[in-house]
C-alpha cells in the first residue's frame, strides 16, 4: 500500500493547517446549476474561505491558492488573493512568472492567467522576455485572442523603442507561416497605423506605400484571402485614398482568368499579377471593383450593378441577395 | 433560391439538456463557478424562448431559483442603525458593500457563517452576472420588490473607469465591451442612466472600432463578432446608433456579411471557422443595423441544424459537445432570423428583442418591473 504523501492529504488532515478555521460554502437554498465538487476541491476552498476571512498572507497561502488555481484556473478570487499575498510578502516575482509560463500553456484560454501576468510585469517592469514568451506561446495557438492582446498591451504599455524594433519582422514571420492569420494582419495594422509614430517612421506616406506594397504582394500569392483584402481597404480608408487608385492592380483579379496567356515579360513590381495557379475571379476583387464603380456614379453605376449581380449569381453562394 | 428542407429543430431535447445543467454539473465543470449566473441565464433563456419553461419546471422550483438568484444580490451596509457596522467603522476596518449592490456569479466565495454579512473585497458583485441575473429574474417573472435600485446605480459608478470602460468588478477584473454592454443594459432596464458617464462610455466604444469595421474586445483588439454586438447594441440602447456615419455603418455591415461562411454559419473573426454562437452575435448585429435581410437565413439554420447533438443540446460546430451557451445563442439567432419558409414547424420560434437578448414578453416584463416605481408624478421611490 502506498503511504499517502503530504500532497495527497486533505488540508483538514494536515496538522500544519489545524489553526485555520475552514468555512463551508453557503448553499442552504436549492442552487441553480450546483457543481458536484470533488472532495479535494471542497476541502481546499473551505480553507481558502477561512484564510480570506482571517486575512492571513503567508507563504502557505501561495501553496493553497496554487492548488485551487490548478483545479479551477477561472477562480477569480484565488488569483486576486494570491496576487495580494505575493505583494505583501515581497516575493521574487521571477519565480511567479516561471510558474505562469507553465500555467499559460495549460490554460491558454483562461482570462485570469493573462491578467495575473499583466499585474506581475507591471511590477517587474521587465517586458523584454515577454515578447519571446508570447512568440513561443503563439506557436501552440496562432490565433489566440488573449495572447495577441497581451502582446499589444506589452508594446503599448511600455512603449519602448527596443521592444518595437523587431515587431515588423515578427509579424512578417507570422504571416509567412499563415498568410490567412487575421490576428497577424490586425497586429500589423496596429504596428503601422495605430500605435503612434516611432523614430524612423515619421514619413507617413512612406509607411502607406510600404504597407500597400506588402499587401499587394500577399494578395498576388493568395488572392482569395479576406484578411488581406480587408487590410488593403483598411490602409486606403486610413490614408483617405480613393479605391479607384488601385484599379490597375485589382482589375486582373476580378476577371475570370489571368489577362495574359503567357507570363508578362516585364514584371510590374508595383501591381503584381495573380499567379498562374490563382483561382479567379476573386470575389473580393469583384466586390472592390463594384465599389469603385459605385463611387464613380452615373454611367459606372450600371457596371457596379452588373458586378453585384454576377457576385450574387455565380461567385458568392452565400450572399445571394 | 431553391427551398431548403431543414431537419427538425429538436427543441425538446435541447430543453432537456438545459434543464439537466440547471439541476447539476459534474466536477469537471468547476471552472463555471465564477460565471454560473450567466450559465443559468443561458439555460433559463432557452427554456423561455422555446416555450418549454412551464413544462420543464415546477412552480416551487422556479420559486427556489428566484430565491437563489436573490441570495446572490449583495447587501449594502445599513449604516447607523447597524451597531456592528458602526463598530467596524470606528476600528477603521474597511467596510464591505461600499461599492454598491449587484449580483455575484454564485455562492462560491460565500461562507455559510457569514452569508448575511456585507460583502468583502473578495466576494464582490460582478457586472455581467448582474445583467444576466436581472434577465433571469424577468424570465421567472419576479416582481423585483427585493431589488436595491439605488445600490445598483452606485455599483455601476464604482465599476466605471476613467477611460469610460467598465470593470467587471469594482476592484478590477476584466474591462472590455462585454462589461460596457452589461452596464448599458442595466441602465436601460432601470430606465435610469445616472449610474454612468454616458459620453465617456461612448468614447470607449468607438475606440474599440477596428479598420475591418467590427469592434475588438478592447481598444487595440482584433474585430470580434461578440464584442461587435456589444458595441452596436449599446449604441442602440442609448439611442446613439445614429452617431455612426453611413460609411462606417456600411463597413460594419460588409464585415458582418463577410463572416457568414459557405457552410451557412458565422465566424467570429475574419478567416476563422464558423461557430454557432456567432450566428447570434453577427446575425443580431446585422439586425440592429437594420440589415438582417442580408443574412442567408436558410443556410444559417441548416448550419445550426448540423450542430445539434443527438442526445440534446447544440454545439459550437458539428460533432462537438453541446453546452447551454451555444444552445441558447443558436436558438436566439433562429428566433431573430427565422428560415422562411422552412417547411418545418419546429423552426418557428417566438420573436426576440435583440437588444436585451430575451423574448419580447420577458423584455417587456423587465422594462415594466425593474425601473423604480413612479409615485405621484416626479417622485420616484
Ligand atoms: Zn462559440
TrEMBL record, chain A:
Pfam family, one: PPTA
An example Gene Ontology molecular-function term: protein farnesyltransferase activity
Domain of life assignment: Eukaryota
KW Repeat (keyword) present: yes
Keywords for this protein: Magnesium, Prenyltransferase, Repeat, Transferase
InterPro entries, alphabetized: Prenyl_trans_a (IPR002088)
Cofactor entry: Mg(2+)
Similarity comment: family membership: Belongs to the protein prenyltransferase subunit alpha family.
Protein name in the entry: Protein farnesyltransferase/geranylgeranyltransferase type-1 subunit alpha
TrEMBL record, chain B:
Keyword Zinc listed: yes
Cofactor: Zn(2+)
Keyword presence, Phosphoprotein: no
Prenyltransferase alpha-alpha toroid domain location: 9-357
UniProt GO MF annotations: CAAX-protein geranylgeranyltransferase activity; metal ion binding
Keyword field: Metal-binding, Prenyltransferase, Repeat, Transferase, Zinc
Gene Ontology cellular-component terms listed: CAAX-protein geranylgeranyltransferase complex
SUPFAM superfamilies: Terpenoid cyclases/Protein prenyltransferases (SSF48239)
Protein family (similarity comment): Belongs to the protein prenyltransferase subunit beta family.
Record PANTHER family: GERANYLGERANYL TRANSFERASE TYPE BETA SUBUNIT, GERANYLGERANYL TRANSFERASE TYPE-1 SUBUNIT BETA
Protein name per the record: Prenyltransferase alpha-alpha toroid domain-containing protein
Amino acid at each position: 500500500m502506498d503511504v499517502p504523501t503530504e500532497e495527497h492529504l486533505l488540508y483538514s488532515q494536515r496538522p500544519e493547517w489545524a489553526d485555520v478555521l475552514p468555512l463551508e460554502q453557503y448553499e442552504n437554498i436549492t442552487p441553480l446549476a450546483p457543481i458536484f465538487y470533488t472532495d479535494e476541491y471542497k476541502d481546499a476552498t473551505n480553507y481558502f474561505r477561512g484564510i480570506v476571512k482571517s486575512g492571513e498572507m503567508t507563504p502557505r497561502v501561495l501553496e493553497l491558492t496554487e492548488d485551487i488555481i490548478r483545479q479551477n484556473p477561472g477562480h477569480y478570487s484565488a488569483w486576486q488573493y494570491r496576487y495580494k499575498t505575493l505583494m505583501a510578502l515581497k516575493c521574487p516575482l521571477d519565480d511567479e512568472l516561471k510558474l505562469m509560463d507553465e500555467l499559460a500553456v495549460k490554460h491558454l484560454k483562461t482570462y485570469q492567467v493573462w491578467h495575473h501576468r499583466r499585474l506581475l510585469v507591471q511590477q517587474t517592469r521587465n517586458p523584454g522576455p515577454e515578447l519571446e514568451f508570447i512568440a513561443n506561446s503563439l506557436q501552440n495557438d496562432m490565433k489566440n485572442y488573449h495572447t495577441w492582446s497581451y502582446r499589444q498591451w506589452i508594446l503599448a504599455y511600455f512603449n519602448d523603442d527596443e521592444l518595437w524594433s523587431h515587431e515588423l519582422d515578427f509579424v512578417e514571420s507570422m504571416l509567412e507561416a499563415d498568410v490567412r492569420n487575421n490576428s497577424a494582419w490586425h497586429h500589423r495594422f496596429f504596428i503601422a497605423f495605430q500605435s503612434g509614430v516611432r523614430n524612423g517612421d515619421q514619413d507617413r506616406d512612406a509607411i502607406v506605400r510600404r504597407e500597400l506594397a506588402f499587401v499587394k504582394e500577399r494578395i498576388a500569392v493568395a488572392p482569395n484571402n479576406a484578411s488581406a483584402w480587408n487590410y488593403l481597404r483598411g490602409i486606403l480608408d486610413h490614408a483617405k485614398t480613393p479605391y479607384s487608385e488601385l484599379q490597375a492592380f485589382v482589375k486582373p483579379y476580378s476577371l475570370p482568368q489571368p489577362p495574359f496567356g503567357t507570363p508578362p515579360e516585364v514584371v510590374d513590381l508595383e501591381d503584381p499579377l495573380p499567379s498562374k495557379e490563382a483561382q479567379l475571379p476573386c470575389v473580393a476583387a469583384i466586390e472592390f471593383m463594384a465599389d469603385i464603380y459605385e463611387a464613380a456614379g452615373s454611367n459606372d453605376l450600371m457596371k457596379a450593378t452588373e458586378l453585384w449581380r454576377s457576385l450574387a449569381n455565380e461567385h458568392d453562394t452565400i450572399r445571394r441577395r | 433560391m431553391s427551398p431548403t428542407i431543414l431537419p427538425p429543430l429538436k427543441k425538446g431535447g435541447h430543453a432537456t439538456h438545459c434543464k439537466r445543467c440547471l439541476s447539476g454539473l459534474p466536477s469537471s465543470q468547476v471552472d463555471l463557478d465564477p460565471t454560473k449566473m450567466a450559465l443559468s441565464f443561458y439555460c433559463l433563456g432557452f427554456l423561455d424562448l422555446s416555450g418549454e419553461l412551464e413544462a420543464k419546471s415546477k412552480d416551487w422550483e422556479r420559486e427556489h431559483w428566484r430565491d437563489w438568484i436573490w441570495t446572490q444580490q449583495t447587501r449594502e451596509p445599513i449604516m447607523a442603525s447597524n451597531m456592528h457596522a458602526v463598530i467596524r467603522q470606528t476600528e477603521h476596518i474597511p467596510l464591505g458593500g461600499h461599492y454598491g449592490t449587484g449580483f455575484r456569479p454564485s455562492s462560491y466565495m460565500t461562507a455559510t457563517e457569514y452569508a448575511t454579512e456585507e460583502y468583502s473585497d473578495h466576494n464582490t458583485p460582478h457586472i455581467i452576472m448582474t445583467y444576466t441575473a436581472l434577465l433571469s429574474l424577468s424570465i421567472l417573472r419576479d416582481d423585483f420588490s427585493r431589488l436595491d435600485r439605488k445600490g445598483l446605480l452606485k455599483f455601476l459608478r464604482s465599476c466605471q473607469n476613467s477611460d469610460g470602460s467598465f470593470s467587471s468588478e469594482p476592484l478590477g477584473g476584466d474591462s472590455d465591451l462585454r462589461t460596457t454592454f452589461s452596464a448599458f443594459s442595466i441602465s436601460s432596464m432601470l430606465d435610469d442612466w445616472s449610474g454612468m458617464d454616458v459620453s465617456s462610455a461612448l468614447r470607449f466604444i468607438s475606440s474599440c472600432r477596428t479598420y475591418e469595421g467590427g469592434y475588438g474586445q478592447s481598444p487595440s483588439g482584433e474585430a470580434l463578432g461578440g464584442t461587435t454586438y456589444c458595441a452596436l447594441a449599446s449604441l442602440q440602447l442609448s439611442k446613439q446608433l445614429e452617431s455612426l456615419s453611413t460609411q462606417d455603418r456600411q463597413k460594419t455591415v460588409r464585415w458582418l456579411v463577410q463572416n457568414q461562411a459557405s457552410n451557412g454559419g458565422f465566424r467570429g473573426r475574419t478567416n476563422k471557422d464558423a461557430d454557432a454562437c456567432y450566428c447570434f452575435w453577427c446575425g443580431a448585429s446585422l439586425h440592429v443595423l437594420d440589415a438582417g435581410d442580408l443574412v442567408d437565413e436558410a443556410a444559417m439554420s441548416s448550419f445550426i441544424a448540423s450542430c445539434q447533438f443527438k442526445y440534446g443540446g447544440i454545439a459550437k460546430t458539428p460533432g462537438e459537445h453541446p453546452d447551454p451557451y451555444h444552445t441558447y445563442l443558436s436558438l436566439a439567432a433562429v428566433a431573430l432570423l427565422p428560415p422562411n419558409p422552412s417547411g418545418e414547424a419546429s423552426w418557428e420560434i417566438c420573436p426576440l428583442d435583440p437588444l436585451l437578448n430575451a423574448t419580447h414578453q420577458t423584455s417587456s416584463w423587465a422594462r415594466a418591473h425593474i425601473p423604480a416605481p413612479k409615485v405621484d408624478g416626479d417622485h420616484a421611490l
